[in-house]
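Researcher: Here's a chain I'd like modeled. Treat it as a single chain, no partners, no ligands.
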Amino acid sequence: MHELSLCRAIADTAVAHANGRDIRRVRVRIGHLRQVVPGTLQHCWDMRVGGGPLDGCVLDIEHVPAVVSCVACAALTTLTVPVRQCARCGGNDVELLSGEEFLIESIDVAPAERTTNSDTERTT
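Model: Modeled as a single isolated chain. Structure tokens:
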């Protein structure tokens, strides 16, 4: 189950970029050809963040369909199986337009704590 290691990497990246602030939501874009099962990824996320510093953090998963453009007939095809082929003419000379994405799109963090003058004053 590689989804667990993916969740670990997503969580580690989010924590590294949060500068110590609480993380509320992480949005990821995952292409169809990445062979990631969204339900399994969500389940692994819940296991990974529960009870830890990311407890309560929501993982939003945007599934990006695999779309190809046929060089021969210019048709756009959304792939349902991982075979790069034009649905109109059956040609294999296609350009992949989307479907290989795997990226953290955004990380929502709590606002930084404001310091007051009393927090920054020193007694001498």
